[in-house]
Specification:
By secondary structure, the protein is mostly helical. It has 10 helices and no strands. The radius of gyration is 22 Å and the shape is elongated. One of its GO terms (cellular component) is plasma membrane. It comes from Paenibacillus phyllosphaerae.
């Protein structure tokens, strides 16, 4: 029964994706659409294989900035979420600012960061932090707030201090929220890095995409998009696996 449920869970999205790719291939083939307008799935896979070395080199640069920015986002989110949970005045002061900050388009901030910090990896990392920090932080704060009041009173009755209450009660209860925020941030991570590379990077998949677009090599551009999708799916899968182990008690 469990195997059947797992099979059903994966079957429908895979079948839908297969049909979409098949339709795409048929439309391009039957309509004889030029490769510089819309490459077919076969053209995309062929481009990925023939230009794999170049794509891999740019992918390493993108992943380096992405993982570094993601790690900084998690650390900063934990620090600020704990501060907001511990001190009411911090939460009242910063929470509205965090919400309003998300109304500013990241693509509008990117040129400013490049002007201030140059064309290196730093602006790219800052863009990733700006995009990934928010969902992690807000998810943690929400998780801390949702701890049952009866549990809090129980911990007070046994004279648990603030650190013990946080470590043994609030943090475990916030894990589900944390991993939800991590999954959202993981989908933003590569996108943020590529936005930075579009605006003024020297290497990375974003730079590769701009160069292939300018050369009308859309098959190579689609190949880089395919790589981004596969990496993002792998990250979500990894986070889900870790979450299932950490939250097994749920």
């Amino acid at each position: 029964m469990i195997l059947k449920k797992k099979t059903g869970h994966w079957f429908y999205p895979i079948a839908a994706l297969f049909l979409a790719v098949l339709m795409w291939q048929l439309v391009v083939t039957l309509a004889d659409i030029p490769i510089y307008i819309l490459p077919s799935p076969l053209d995309t896979v062929k481009a990925l294989l023939t230009d794999f070395g170049m794509i891999a080199r740019h992918l390493i640069a993108t992943l380096y900035a992405s993982l570094l920015g993601f790690t900084l986002s998690v650390a900063l989110a934990f620090i600020l979420a704990i501060a907001m949970d511990s001190f009411g005045v911090v939460k009242k002061s910063l929470y509205p600012i965090l919400i309003v900050s998300q109304t500013v388009p990241t693509i509008a901030i990117t040129p400013l960061l490049i002007i201030w910090f140059g064309f290196g990896v730093l602006p790219k990392i800052l863009i990733i932090v700006l995009m990934c920090f928010f969902p992690i932080c807000i998810s943690l704060v929400d998780g801390f707030d949702k701890v049952d009041g009866d549990y809090l009173r129980l911990f007070r009755s046994i004279k648990a201090n603030r650190w013990q209450t946080f470590y043994h009660l609030k943090l475990p209860h916030a894990m589900v929220n944390l991993f939800s925020g991590l999954k959202i941030a993981a989908t933003y991570m590569l996108m943020a890095a590529i936005i930075g590379e579009w605006q003024g990077g020297t290497d990375g998949l974003g730079v590769y995409m701009v160069r292939t677009k300018n050369a009308y090599a859309l098959d190579k551009m689609f190949a880089s998009i395919l790589v981004i999708v596969l990496i993002s799916v792998a990250l979500i899968y990894l986070i889900n696996k870790v979450a299932s182990r950490v939250n097994h008690w749920k």
